[in-house]
Amino acid sequence: LQFGFLVSRLIIFSSSPYCCFQMSGEYRYVWRIAFRNFINSLRPRQIRGNAMGTDYIGNKYFEIPAEPSLGKRKPTRWYDPPKGLDFENKIPSEWEAWLRMRRDNAPTEEEIAQNMAMAKMKKENAAKLEAKRLAEGGDLPVAPERGHLSFPKYEEYHAGDPEGKRFKE
């Protein structure tokens, strides 16, 4: 009676695709699983995430929250650029900080509008200060020389010229 129970268990376990026993038909399932995994690897991944917002460029931002019970400590964040644009275009600094986990919450529309207004005000103030400096007689800024020519030259120091012939001629 116990032997019949053991044999029935063996038959039930061996018919499942994830079987540990060497019985006929098991390899058929392994090849099916391998083929299915290969086909799925060729398909683009369809990841579902929570839509977190959009920026003024048209990028859409998504997040999959962290699940510490599954061992996932950090959320997964990404963005999709609008059609015709690629990932090399600039994104707003608030959204970039959110994507790189420097901030916990996604930026709000009000915050982005406030930062844009502040940047515009700073540009206007810089233009006013530049106009005021030029009106007082200031010159346009000159680009500094580069390389070894940018270092000062003094007659009393003759580096590489012990007799000082270079400056006296």
From TrEMBL:
GO terms for cellular component: mitochondrion; respiratory chain complex I. GO terms for biological process: mitochondrial respiratory chain complex I assembly. Pfam families: NDUFA12 (PF05071). It comes from the Eukaryota. Residues 138-169 are annotated as: Disordered. Residues 1-17 form the signal peptide. Residues 145-169 have a biased composition (Basic and acidic residues). InterPro entries: ComplexI_NDUFA12 (IPR052618), NDUFA12 (IPR007763). Keywords: Signal. Belongs to the complex I NDUFA12 subunit family. This is NADH dehydrogenase [ubiquinone] 1 alpha subcomplex assembly factor 2.
